[in-house]
Amino acid sequence: MRNLIQNIFSPLKNIENENIEFDIGFWKSIGVILLWLTVDAIVMVLIYALCFQSKSEATIISIFAIVRLFTLPIEILILNKVFGRRTNELNTFKKVNKKTIFHITLLLLVFRLLFDAFILPMMLRIPENDTLIQAEQTLNSSLIYAVLSVCIIAPIVEEVIFRGIILNGMLKRYNPSTAIIISSLLFAFAHGNLHQGVNAFLLALIIGCIYYKTHSLYLAIYCHFFNNIFLFDSFSFWWSSF
To answer: pTM of whole model > 0.70?
Structure first.
């Protein structure tokens, strides 16, 4: 069982320990995102093909979330194989300790409070586009999908892609500021709508700086998880006010 767990988490561990190296420019980063979206689309099409006749929409997307959860290691392994290069180097530049986690949590809390107090009310006055409306409807239709996708799948896979691979690789080609800004813009555009994109861009700037300072994918995943937990509550509160 222990070996099985290690094999499941080894793709993440390889990025965290820098046993795999990425050298990513702008156009190759587009390729990373397209491969990720393609794998997602293939999984969704297969599930729809197998379940469409006998399952409701809510059941199908719940199954999709569960399958995605179990295929995450495979998806990350594919990205590592296609865009990464194995190395024997180990990351010794670590700052993951209780003090660091406390300071990062405090920083994220301040960010969420400021965003929710000053930026979110303005964003909610802008009409939603179809992409955001569809995303909201999907989340509302299945609690299983909402919890797994927002709290587990998104923090892991999106941090692997945008910090563990894209930002990690761009830091080898560009100066830190350029790499963080470009990867943050890509992260924002990947959300497909202005409302989520603004929050995603600002959050990505923070996580990008943290990743640059610590080289820790695990900390980046924690930041994303913490943000998404608070995003649920704050969005529900402000939306009910309008």
So the answer is: yes
